[in-house]
Queue: 3 jobs
Job 1
Amino acid sequence: DGEGFAPQADTALVRNIAPLADIFVNDAFAAAHRCQPSLVGFVEALPMATGLVMERELRKLGGAIADGPAPRIALLGGSKAADSVAIAHHFLSQGVDEVLTGGVVANLFLLAGGVDIGAPSTAFIRDHVPGWEQVVADAAALRKEFGDRLVVPLDVAVSDGGLRHGLPVSELPTKHPVHDIGLETLVTYLQRIEGAGTVIANGPMGVFENPEFAAGTREIFTAMANSDALTVVGGGESAMAFTQMGLADRVNHVSTGGGACIAFMSGRMMPVLEALRDSKRRFDEGGYNK
């Protein structure tokens, strides 16, 4: 808001605790997208450093996006479609070679490409994606800007009375909701993972909580676990899925952040990281000398 962190510093918490300490260590990556006094207020009075968890998150996430071994691919799925559009833009702008989509994210990008995905899946986007019309427009612009680097499914799996039924995208629309990527898409994505140097995953490929539609997510995440590539997993739904499938200890990094991980991967300003930069500047300029 242009005031720096003075409002957060001018609180009883900071005024009472800061005189008792020599340095403030922030290890709360999962809250790094927030701006509470306990997170950023001490920077006005104390040198600020990262803890080991924060350092690992920044090195693993940032390194995978910007400097991971090539080719670098990202898998974006789940239901947080608006966030994933922003993440896709940031990834592709930072040189990630391809973004492969699944879940509601894929449905939205298909819709943005002029595909009629059917009433149930369109209604889900309309009802669950805030500002959905603008998000679809942003996704359409992204497809135009990055072309084939943004990959959408070739086929899908729909729920027909609760049972899985495969359907090529060319045969859409359908009266049944799309709940997973299809077999041809799965094979294509597995081939991309096999040839990748870096794989970043954020969000499942479908409704993995339902065994009937878990195949896409399970096979993709298992391929990541078996890969020799640098493998990084976003927090939230992805971390939960990897843990439930017993794969979390077989990838290089699983983020502890949900919203913070999304903010970082989409390139948004994060108050805690800004506070760390501010602290370094103050320290270099001798601003903490008493």
Job 2
Amino acid sequence: MPEEEVDESFEIISEKEKLWRDYLVTCETNYINAEASMIQNKALIELAKAEIKKESDKNK
């Protein structure tokens, strides 16, 4: 009789561990989104400053 193969990639975890893993993914996603938002806002700040300077120079 052949030995039964065991899928070692499947692991049994507790419900509490699953919740913590899900929470970790959520936190990491939020962190990445926050970083992206900061980069976007930095670019928009630079754009606004450049436009303010351009308008200010016109009025001199």
Job 3
Amino acid sequence: MYPFLALAGALGLLSVGFGAFSEHALQPRVDAESFRYLMTAIRYNQVHAVVLLALSLGLAAPIASDTWRRLRLAAWLMFAGTVLFSVSIYLSVMLGIPALTYFTPVGGVTLMLAWAAIIWAGWSAAR
């Protein structure tokens, strides 16, 4: 499904751009622990951008409608979870607002639900 291809590209672009910004502009201005949080957010952003890319390609394949719907659910959850998880950390460190990290665990749970939806799609398609 093409919107997910574009969203995967946007997440990939965000991860590379924010990675460069973090290394060159933020690292000298933040403490080591905050920088470690940024690196975790960037890693999650990169990994899940690639997973969303794979899901978008899977959605373009000729698959059963039930499997397609489950993969689409997984893709939406993957996108939302990545944004909530990574962007909450990016903004928290960049703006110095620790309360923004309250969204981080919501993003983590959303990512776990996305992975569960992938399991559900695979399990039900194999039946």
